[in-house]
Amino acid sequence: MLGPSLFIQPHYDDVPLSCGGTLALLAEGGHEPRMITVFASEPVDEMVGEFAAWKHERWKVRDAEQVLAVRRQEDAEAARALGSSVRWLGLPDAIYRGERYRSDPELFGALKPEELELAAHLAEEIRQLPEWRDDMQVFVPLGIGSHVDHQLVFEAGRHLATAGVRVHAYEDCPYAIHTPAGVEARLTALGDAVGQPVIVPIAKTLQKRLDSIACYRSQVPVIFRFTSDFRQTVTDFALKTGGDAGPAERFWPVHAYGGAR
Ligand SMILES: [Zn+2]
């Protein structure tokens, strides 16, 4: 999996959380991998509905501008810790996309049909980025946990695969860690949209992945509310993933629409 690479994350934090070890390996190998955060628009106050306001409360931030500044600073720090940089795209995340998703069940439910067009648009936008190179491989979330934003970026990955781009889906953490059954459920739902998984050993860069996750100071207590020691939790999961290969991360090749390629 060497070569120029673009790691697409729906939200600030998904790539360091899920596959930061592989990104750091590519960076150390001189492949200059880049991170792209998709749902990173500048929220205007009118976009913050009741549901978003409740989320903000939980994140202990008072206004949208403050959310943006804090999260971007954390994201940039995390990218640096992995030897990369990050670009933020202007798509509003689901809780800010009007009234489409108004509760957690909706946020983790089916992708609304009107959003499929957004996935095609996103795939196009990715290929227009200054970072884009035709020999690039792209990493997208598999969509474990079914967050609609993750599903949407996965679909954009399928559009890219259909256009002939090499696309890998990473194992969404922390969802895959705290709800292993979600991995099987998502794979069943995807059917032949993805191929057999491959393992990337990350013993050399696991520490960098952990350090980059720690950069998301405002999020770590929320993301890892199911554990008191996120470093141990992520390490245990990487060890379980790799088995005899030592700590590892897992990826699935993403197939084109209309059959495997
Ligand atoms: Zn996410």
Structure description:
There is one protein chain. With 261 residues, this protein is of the alpha/beta class. The protein has a single domain (5-259), classed as 3-Layer(aba) Sandwich (Rossmann fold). Helix content is 43%, strand content 12%. It has eleven helices and seven strands. The chain has helices at 14-28, 50-58, 64-81, 104-107, 116-127, 148-162, 175-178, 181-190, 206-214, 220-223, 230-242; strands at 5-9, 34-37, 86-88, 137-141, 166-170, 198-201, 248-253. A seven-stranded mixed sheet has the order 3-2-1-4-5-7-6, sandwiched between helices. Helix 1 crosses helix 9, helix 3 (64-81) runs antiparallel to helix 9 and helix 5 packs across helix 6. It starts with a strand and ends in an 8-residue tail after the last strand. The model has no long low-confidence stretch (mean pLDDT 92). The structure holds zinc ion. Residues 10-11, 14, 147, 150 line the site of zinc ion (ZN).
What's the overall average pLDDT, rounded?
A: 92
- CATH homology-level superfamily: LmbE-like
Specify the biggest β-sheet: 7 strands, mixed
Principal-axes shape call: globular
The CATH C-level name is Alpha Beta
Summarize the structure.
This protein is of the alpha/beta class and 261 residues long. Helices cover 43% and strands 12% of the residues.
Please specify the SSE layout and strand pairing:
Elements: E1 5-9, H1 14-28, E2 34-37, H2 50-58, H3 64-81, E3 86-88, H4 104-107, H5 116-127, E4 137-141, H6 148-162, E5 166-170, H7 175-178, H8 181-190, E6 198-201, H9 206-214, H10 220-223, H11 230-242, E7 248-253
Helix pairs in contact: 1-9, 3-9, 5-6
Bound molecules: zinc ion.
